[in-house]
Amino acid sequence: METADFTFTLLVDKSPEKVFQAISNVRAWWSGFHAEEINGGTEKLHDKFSFFAGGGAHYTEHKLVEVIPNRKIVWLTTHSSFSFVENPNEWTNTEVIFEISEKGNQTQLVFTHKGLTPKLECYDTCSASWAQYLTDKLLPLINSEEPEAVIK
Fold first, then answer.
1. Phi, psi for residue 125 in degrees, rounded to 5
2. Residues 116, 8: contact at Cβ < 8 Å?
3. Any idea what the CATH number is for the domain that residue 44 is in?
């Protein structure tokens, strides 16, 4: 069944463990473009964190609802507030899903923001931002030799 949820796939020459470590280090990759701030835990099941960016344009709260080491991480967005769309709560009750699998001698990361669909006003801006964070921040972090690297 086809889904309209935003999905983005990366294929890397690193282990599933390395990909999982990089995703879990949220501060190292979901930051750096718009003076973002992340508060709270981002690694363990039931951890809660908030993300603030763009001088108040984007504020979200997330809870880790599924963590399967080296395989899957799911964040439930429990609250969202966007100043740039008519409905500031567009992300509330959506899920950010990271699925990690082996494909031959490579590791595949499938990122899905379940609920971020073209019917949402923020879709174009948000999907482009996710793609930028995933390719310009998370991918270099995965490929770095430093496990705790912060990509500037």
1. -65, -45
2. no
3. 3.30.530.20
